Amino acid sequence: MSIIRKTASYVYTLDSQPLRNGYVEYDDADGTIVSVGTCGPEEEVEAGALVPGFVNAHCHIELSHLHKKFRKGTGMAGFIDQINELRDWAGRDVKAELTRQWMDKMWEDGVSAMADISNDDSSFEVKRSHPIYTRTFLEVFGSEPEMCEGVMNDVAGLQALADAAGIDAAPTPHSCYTMSPQLLSASAGKGLESGYLSYHSQESQEEEDLLMSGSGAMYENRKRSGMSTPPVTGESSLKYFLDRLADVKPAPYQEHILLVHNVCLGQDDINAVKAVMHNPFFAICPLSNIFIHNALPPIALMRENKLDIAIGTDSLSSNDDLDMMKEIVCLHTNFPEVPMVELFTWASLNGARFLGKENMLGTLTPGKRPGVVLVTGLDADGNVTEESKSKRLI
Questions:
Q1: In the CATH hierarchy, which fold is given to the domain comprising 54-322?
Q2: What's the pTM?
Q3: 384: closest CA among 320, 317, 311, 318?
Q4: Closest CA to 373 of 81, 78, 112
């Protein structure tokens, strides 16, 4: 065993209070944390912070071929039009190679695990052999009720390919606005069977208008395309999702359910979730939300309700990078009242908890192998800045 000792101005173990002028010792062979503590008065300390490896709680790595191809600020309806136009320009080999390149970059930047969305199998071989642990959500779409059986048969075939590749994967619904009620329930049921479900929830006001009043840009987009729209309920899109869950399984839900984006989340929605879900997690993707419609989730409300927040990058169709550090900087810039220890908890521990990997990831605890990441470019108070970078040490 070769023990490496790294020091930093701050050590965020995330299983106890942050340490000032601390150290982390780990086994250089496999990254197992050996000890953590405060440096002696004579020990030289490196500037920066040591944190556990990040968990990217929401990504679409197979869309890496769409980097820099989308216009910003189009709203969700315009973004969907661009996805439909551009998503199939690249062949399988190109998609697989770009998947590898961007996963390698994420690893070097400190990502240890990822909750990823897949619509095909182009990323499976890369995931199978990559050091980043991935749970893959096999996302389904289909606006017409008669499509449900065929779509579910297709995703069962994709599930078989994931199983053959040896990666953790299961079907999951996309969102209220791309699915018939029947397909939303059927795919959610499969996700619940696996114990894990991811769902794009309340990403835009256009989505809410669609369900609340059958109006707005997304409604008009669907009608122009000749697509059926979900029923107008007069309630939020999140409450509609809860109704579809209840259609296949009665509450309460012990499964790990990830609600992604949450830009339009309100107190009534939070109350409804808490009433039926025992393990809800709320993924936020701030740079993607700004990219598409220049909006951010209600962080103050989410903190007030003590929600389990995790951070994702979304895809390179709606983000210029897959850099978790940039997401953290964005959040600190817009919500400076959130302590750094809380932001790092969102970026590491909570994502690990959603994935059920907190026994190995998420904290700098002796015996775990979370990865050790050095964050540089801090200000005099230890906060991240626009110059902050993250670098994997092990």
A1: TIM Barrel (3.20.20)
A2: 0.95
A3: 311
A4: 112
